[in-house]
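Margin note from the TA: students keep mixing up input and output lines. Inputs are the sequences; the output is the structure of the whole complex. Example:
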Amino acid sequence: MKQSVFPSKILPYILLLPTFIILVIFLFYPAFETFRLSFYKVNPYTNATKFAGLYNFKKVLFNPDYGHSFGISILFSLFVVILGIVVSLALAALLNQNFKGAKIYRTLMIWPYALSPAIAGALFNFLFNPANGIICFFSNNYTWLTNGSSAFVVIAIAATWKNLGYNVVFYLTALRNVPSDSLEAAAIDGAGPFKRFFKITLAFVSPTTFFLFVMNTTYAYFASFGLIDVLTEGGPVDSTNILIYQLYKDFFVNSRIGYAAAESLVLFCIVVLITVVQFRTTGKKVHYQ
Amino acid sequence: MIVKKRTIISFHVLSILAVFIICLPVLLAIIISSQTEVQVLSNPPKLTFSNNWVSNYSTAWDRIDLGRMMFNSGFIAIMVTVGKIIMSLLAAFAFTHFNFKGKNILFFIIIVTLLLPVPVRIVALFDVVRGFDWINTYAGLIVPFWASATGTFLFIQRFKTIPSELIDASKIDGCKPMQYFFRVLLPLTKNTIGALVVIEFIYIWNQYLWPLMATNTDNMRVVQIGIKMLMNAESSNNWGVIMAGVIITIIPPLVVFFLLQESFMRGFALQSEK
């Protein structure tokens, strides 16, 4: 369908001007400049720069601590994405059933969307703190946050909990758009509710699944910074030190500017990779209405 | 389809269970925020309300100048939301209602910004903002967030569903483009604007990394940083006070969320309709 247009030649540029001014100054220039700085050594006191080729990247990629941080980030994002998607699809499927009160339950399930990762961090810190955390009390006084792997589980659960509402909203919308005639036809053919769900519904909501895969991955890599800073500060012994937290420390605490810029570029590559993978798989396999 | 009564009951049981687990952290926080330090530290934990509300909430409010931080966060969130919505409305209007040279390239450039979240450009963004002398200013916390691919996409999707006949009719009536924008388009876009208000207000209110870097004086701090400051100030693990602070800071985004919940859901629904 071709939309009718207004004939004006200059007006559209005027309309786009404010957006592009902001984009150039605060998005493209900083991104380009970060890219450039990653090839330089920068003096933190004088800001003098010296070309260093791939020096920063070598230092980043051959640093075992960085490799450790990388592994933790991948594990963390997989945990958050998989648990988040499975649980929220189940909740959305439940809310999508036709029963009284479903709307109230919906509201009561999605509102943590409005909370921040830092708040989630404070809440889980309170639940799991070694002194009098309620969960510690109910788990034989086990101090979750002083052990590396259990601290990791706590941040992963906190991050998943905080993002459930967001995921449920998207799945609810997707479930509503599943054509009911396909489901009815399958029911007539004798497919039970579980078979219908796995054979038909899952295929129809797959574009949403892929979208949420990307959104939850970027959420795990970037937005969880506040959660980590409030809950564990990357500890104990770096066991929750994900890439974005390491980047913050290198840039802001240790003033290693060129090095941090190289870390940014690595993060950028991860975002691009995830997006490309998402576009390719979406294009090939995913069912569109 | 007739659904059995037992199935309905099991739906309710499952829903109540899920709601309970999801709400539990905040529920416990509210309970704890009513207790004195002694009650908080009691073993086994006391899981009922007490009457130390006023003391905890006023201590949390005074200890870190929470009032000032609430104002900062609110002001920043409102200014970003308004600026972002205006800019993306205008951009979406340009892309959907005009033909012009370079349209595809400009659209592509906006898509590319999705690949550039704050952490990817933070090193140089900090330099740019420092260059403008915007550290510890509202401008430094507001202006860099005004452009938005999400907003532009959402409005483009909405504008595309509005029938072409409306434009043709207004052109025949001699309606100028901006008149059409204000009189016809805007009133039809209320739900999408509502959805974007929820998304952006909550996004900015909840931001952490950028305000942490772009401010360092107490009077420019935002509530998210304030929560950590409160936790450090209450080193004795006086969780009643800390949880009182948490409850205060989650009220504004929750109010926005509950007030605009319907638009929020509908705005999303429209987005996914092809």
